[in-house]
Amino acid sequence: MNVQKVVLVIFIILGVLDIVYGLLMDDRISLLMGPVLIIIGLYLIARERKQAQDG
Predict the structure, then answer these.
(1) What is the phi/psi pair of residue 27, to 5°?
(2) If 0-12 CB within 10 Å is exposed, 13-18 middle and 19+ buried, where does residue 41 land?
(3) What is the pLDDT along the chain (55 residues), one digit of tens a residue?
(4) Eight-class DSSP state of 27
(5) What pTM did the predictor assign?
(6) Residue 42 to residues 5, 26, 39: CA-CA distances in angstroms?
């Protein structure tokens, strides 16, 4: 597992933690940004996998 994949997984974990924080503290910005972080992380992982399969 290379460093880039680890960073992307940490990015997704931060998104989940941001959602939890938003729920606990009633923070709407965290509730908005948490899913955004998760979606970006998943998109980058999918793009990396596709590039690995193509090349």
Answers:
(1) -105, 110
(2) buried
(3) 688 889 999 999 999 999 999 999 999 999 999 999 999 999 999 999 999 898 7
(4) -
(5) 0.86
(6) 11, 25, 5
